Protein: ABC transporter ATP-binding protein
Organism: Vagococcus allomyrinae
Amino acid sequence: MTQDLSIKVKELKKSFKGTTAIKDISFTVGKGEIFGFLGPSGAGKTTTIKILTGQLKQTSGHVEILGQNITNFSANLYERIGIMTDNSGLYERMTVYQNLAFFARLLQVPTSRVDELLQRVGLAEHQKKLASKLSKGMTQRLILARAVLHQPELLFLDEPTSGLDPSTASAIHELLLELRDNGTAILLTTHNMEEATFLCDNIALLNDGFIVERGTPEELKIKFNQEKRYRITKTSGQQVVLADNHETVETIQSWFQTGQIETIHSCEPTLGDIFIQVTGRKLV
């Protein structure tokens, strides 16, 4: 089973001057899986990513990346992963195209891949612009393009669509799903719960250095759907929410028979609702 895992974390801990940021967490990420690592600011997400990418050394615990123990993090391993974080740097005196072309040469990627990615992330029209002149959203797209340039086996993404317009975010979602379907494992952090629900195969909810809940988005919604209800929009425009009981079933049947129902939805909690229920904190 280990050979099918891109990330294996067991009893990971990290302390800073007496303060424990990561407290005995364990999880795995399989090949071709998008794993959502969700939690509020200060929960330990960034610290974990820095350990997994060789930027920090753990206090204790065992971590394997693509089958290699990270205590021996090699240059070869860096060539097999992609990283997008808020401190990922660019060459500001180079243009958008030159930045990607430089890394393409470094990673022995054909320049045709550069042209393809510029289209996919919506930067083709700005390829001659200096990186220093890009807006925050454009910079974010360029860093993402650089991270996936070599079609890595494992991708670390920290808030990849934060601040992007819906059209560009949708194009990036399509790119990430394509990478996943081609076998790339993705560790994703996001505060966008709709994004996490749409993209993630599995998620872990992190709070105060602990993983407090995990599972697929659907599993968690079902598990925490303790008060089953139905939200109904009637043809008159009236909206009602009804509890799941025998009386409600009879009412809905009656409304269906008389053509009074426009839409009907079950009221599962969102991932945000679940996080607040589990931790008492908002996911911001």
